[in-house]
């Protein structure tokens, strides 16, 4: 638990609001893994060191944000009928009571099954103490498609009665799969840098991420919504007794996202569209570029729709903002400042872009409005001005800055070899880098040392040690939590080697995917050059019990391997034993669970022979073996700071 000092500058009421409403502290700080009982997946006391004064190894402003994100973990009362569990993961779980009943709805469910379960148990203990019984969970809402908001879903499904409504914005599954499965390995590897997963939690290591402290490391799940929010306005079909007004915000913080207003409680949930930090236009772990212009428009729409009706605004991260003030409506101020900030970033980037500035030049030149620049709720603790304007540039102009010299660059290794040769060789470059380091020109020292390491010089031990020191100093000075973690993780891996990404997703998560997405988990891992040598393969899969929320049962899917690529499309279901088309190499009749086991096993390099399942086949089963033999597993610890 971090105890916050009352004499710290609190012009935005941050320290007051972050601690307000605690009703049930988390008693045991440790949450353990379901799969490895002795492994701690969350420790709520890990950041107790932040109670101390900020040391020289951290930026003072980021240290302050870390303190705010590390207040006592537990259940917080937001307003009548609304609670939040904070401090059990990177994100929050929110709970809204249905008036006049013993029912609740849950909004978001954390990153892992273990932390999600602990969060709802904490609420239920409080509910039981107040009403003499546990609450009935009647619905789970996903505000958006990022893993820290849906991956604990299985814990809620296990606690709820049969018939749980799982409600998410239109496009939720498609985008959840795109971000967390298609590019999941690369994002997971880069997330190690973004969240500092390999770093110790102490004043010289990881002190948070600006958006929260860290991501829990338990088991991730994915449970598909059985109701989609497809339009703005009153939720239809609704939750009996609880009015909910929806505002869809696709293309802002997430490609599928929704804000939720509860008129009976005058409470507005802003999902992750308004938190107490500047957010990312493009995340450094990798993700599609977000639309800063749309983001600003949605915030303006939120103010118009709900601003004067809202007593408290809460989000999927950080602490709420209450409107009560003698001087101003703090809710409207909170939302309008963020609206203006994203709009200014967008418009000023476009102005400079159209004046011929490149992304790097814009990042160096842009000036933010003085009256907003120091506001802590939009300060760059998570998203930075520097990398956000580059994301805006990328959205409109792509990766190319227009200069022919950057159109066809050498590979990093080839460029480094030429670079070091031109500067007189290893010793000369190392000496120059050390001189720039001594002059505190850390950015150019890092550039030189990076070239030296990628040049493949035989003796790079000294260069790696020097670059580790440079990255450490850059990290210690960074106000942005992500930048700090990236620099310090770079230093860590130069000393210790790559830290492997870990996939802790439950196999059952694949049950939430449609057939297109399910077969894509193999398609993206087929080794194209190896597949050149194979002649075409065609297979029909006939599934007799597809879940209604994925597709009407039964369903058929045609898979084709040709020209080194695996593609497919839906076909009409044909019952066994007669194939749909006699020209198809193989037809397979099976149930959904078996299909998921067969495809899921192949995607992780553990193929299951169709002959060893309950599937009925017609044709040559070696057709499937041909496809699975071409699966190439990704490198979970690919190099980043070394070639």
UniProtKB/TrEMBL annotation:
Q: Name one GO biological process term.
A: dodecyl sulfate metabolic process
This protein's record includes keyword Secreted: no
A Pfam family it matches: Alkyl_sulf_dimr
Could you list this entry's UniProt keywords, alphabetically sorted.
Answer: Hydrolase, Metal-binding, Zinc
> Single GO molecular-function term?
linear primary-alkylsulfatase activity
Q: List residues of the Metallo-beta-lactamase domain.
A: 90-317
Q: Which domain of life is it from?
A: Eukaryota
Respond yes or no to whether keyword Transport is given for this record: no
Q: Which SUPFAM superfamilies match?
A: Metallo-hydrolase/oxidoreductase, SCP-like
The cross-references to InterPro entries, in alphabetical order and at most eight, read: Alkyl/aryl-sulf_dimr_sf, Alkyl_sulf_C, Alkyl_sulf_dimr, Bact_Alkyl/Aryl-Sulfatase, Bds1/SdsA1_MBL-fold, Metallo-B-lactamas, RibonucZ/Hydroxyglut_hydro, SCP2_sterol-bd_dom_sf
Q: What protein family is recorded? A: Belongs to the metallo-beta-lactamase superfamily. Type III sulfatase family.
Name the chain's protein: Metallo-beta-lactamase domain-containing protein
């Amino acid at each position: 638990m971090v105890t916050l000092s009352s004499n710290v500058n609190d012009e935005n009421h941050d320290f007051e609001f972050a601690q307000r409403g605690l009703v049930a502290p988390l008693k045991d700080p440790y949450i353990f893994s379901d799969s490895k009982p002795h492994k701690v997946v969350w420790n709520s006391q890990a950041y107790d060191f932040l109670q101390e004064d900020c040391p020289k190894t951290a930026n003072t402003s980021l240290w302050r944000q870390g303190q705010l994100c590390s207040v006592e973990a537990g259940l917080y009362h937001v307003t009548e009928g609304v609670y939040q569990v904070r401090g059990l993961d990177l994100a929050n779980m929110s709970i809204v009571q249905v008036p006049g009943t013993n029912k609740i709805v849950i909004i978001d469910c954390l990153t892992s099954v273990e932390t999600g379960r602990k969060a709802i148990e904490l609420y239920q203990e409080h509910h039981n103490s107040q009403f003499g019984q546990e609450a009935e969970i009647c619905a789970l809402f996903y505000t958006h498609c990022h893993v820290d908001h849906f991956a604990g879903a299985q814990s809620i499904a296990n606690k709820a009665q049969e018939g749980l409504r799982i409600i998410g914005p239109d496009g939720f599954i498609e985008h959840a799969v795109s971000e967390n499965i298609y590019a999941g390995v690369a994002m997971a590897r880069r997330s190690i840098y973004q969240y500092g997963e390999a770093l110790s939690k102490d004043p010289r290591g990881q002190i948070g991420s600006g958006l929260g402290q860290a991501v829990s490391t338990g088991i991730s799940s994915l449970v598909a919504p059985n109701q989609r929010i497809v339009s703005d306005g009153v939720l239809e079909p609704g939750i009996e007794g609880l009015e909910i007004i929806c505002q869809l915000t696709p293309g802002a913080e997430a490609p599928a996202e929704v804000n939720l207003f509860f008129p009976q409680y005058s409470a507005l949930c802003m999902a992750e569209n308004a938190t107490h930090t500047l957010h990312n236009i493009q995340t450094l772990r990798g993700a599609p570029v977000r639309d800063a212009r749309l983001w600003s428009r949605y915030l303006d729409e939120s103010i118009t729709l709900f601003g004067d009706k809202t007593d408290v605004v809460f989000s999927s991260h950080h602490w709420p903002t209450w409107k009560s003030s003698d001087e101003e409506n703090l809710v409207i101020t909170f939302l309008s400042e963020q609206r203006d900030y994203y709009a200014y970033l967008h418009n000023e980037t476009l102005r400079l872009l159209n004046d011929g500035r490149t992304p790097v030049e814009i990042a160096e030149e842009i000036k933010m409005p003085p009256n907003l620049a120091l506001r802590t709720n939009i300060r760059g603790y998570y998203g930075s001005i520097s990398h956000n304007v580059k994301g805006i540039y990328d959205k409109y102009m792509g990766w190319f800055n227009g200069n022919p010299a950057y159109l066809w660059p050498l590979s990093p290794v080839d460029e480094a070899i030429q670079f070091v040769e031109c500067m007189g060789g290893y010793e000369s470059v190392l000496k120059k880098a050390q001189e720039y380091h001594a002059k505190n020109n850390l950015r150019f020292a890092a550039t030189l040392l990076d070239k030296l390491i990628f040049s493949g010089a035989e003796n790079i031990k000294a260069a790696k040690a020097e670059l580790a020191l440079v990255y450490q100093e850059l990290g210690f000075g960074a106000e942005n939590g992500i930048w700090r973690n990236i620099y310090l993780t770079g230093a860590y891996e130069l000393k210790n080697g790559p830290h492997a990404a870990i996939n802790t997703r439950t196999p059952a998560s694949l049950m939430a995917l449609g057939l297109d997405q399910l077969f894509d988990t193999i398609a993206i891992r087929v080794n194209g050059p190896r597949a050149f040598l194979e002649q075409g393969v065609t297979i029909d899969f006939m599934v007799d019990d597809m879940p209604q929320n994925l597709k009407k049962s039964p369903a058929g899917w045609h898979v084709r391997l040709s020209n080194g690529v695996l593609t497919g499309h839906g076909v009409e279901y044909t019952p066994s034993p007669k194939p749909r088309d006699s020209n198809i190499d193989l037809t397979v009749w099976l149930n959904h669970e078996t299909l998921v086991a067969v495809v899921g096993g192949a995607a992780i390099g553990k193929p299951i022979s169709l002959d060893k399942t309950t599937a009925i086949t017609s044709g040559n089963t070696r057709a499937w073996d041909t496809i699975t033999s071409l699966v190439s597993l990704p490198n979970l610890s690919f190099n980043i700071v070394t070639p």
